[in-house]
Specification:
With about 180 residues, this protein is an alpha+beta fold. Helix content is about 55%, strand content about 25%. It folds into two domains: about 80 residues; about 100 residues, Alpha-Beta Plaits (2-Layer Sandwich), CATH 3.30.70. Strands 1, 2, 3, 4 and 5 form a five-stranded antiparallel sheet that branches.
């Protein structure tokens, strides 16, 4: 069956359009579609990397916060728990501070040490009489001593004559690392 001229032109047009469409798909659409898939995979990978970096940044912030907290807790460790007793030096400093503040009838004596895990607690009994201002000055002066101490017991009584004088008795505790 011979094709007439119209049918041949129609077939040529269809094949021509088909060829153009195939060429467009092969040269235009497929590379763009393929590149789009690669870009989507790249974006997904970058988003995963960003999520991991955000997680690590949060973890770093938490570690930094914990390190700051630990540094704050141990900032005075050398003053609080020195490697040696130096009890005589500390007792001398206490007596000097009592004299400096004007306290009278003072007494300072070391009590029996208490063994703790890695250190010893050295309690010291301090007694004195004076005004509240003098006693306050003494307590404030304790903060400036090279060695830190803590007050584990405090008893303050006013005299019966209402003169403004008080009698104070306190137990300070200092610490040191255990001797080897």
């Amino acid at each position: 069956m011979p094709l007439n001229r119209l049918s041949r032109n129609t077939l040529v047009s269809i094949f021509g359009f088909g060829g153009i469409l195939a060429g467009f798909l092969a040269l235009g659409y497929y590379p763009a579609w393929s590149e789009r898939g690669a870009l989507e995979r790249d974006i997904a990978g970058q988003q995963a990397t960003l999520a991991e970096h955000a997680r690590l940044a949060d973890e770093l912030q938490d570690l930094t916060r914990r390190a700051s907290s630990i540094a704050f807790q141990v900032r005075n460790y050398d003053r609080l728990v020195p490697p040696h007793k130096d009890l005589g030096v500390f007792l001398g400093q206490l007596s000097h501070q009592l004299d400096q503040t004007g306290m009278k009838d003072t007494a300072v004596r070391a009590l029996q040490p208490t063994s703790l895990r890695r250190c010893e607690q050295l309690p010291i009994e301090v007694r004195g009489a004076g005004t509240f201002g003098e006693f306050h000055s003494f307590l404030t002066a304790l903060e400036s001593l090279p060695r830190m101490s803590s007050v584990s017991r405090l008893n303050v009584e006013s005299d019966n004559l209402m003169t403004g004088h008080i009698n104070s008795e306190l137990t300070l505790s200092i610490y040191n690392t255990k001797p080897e």
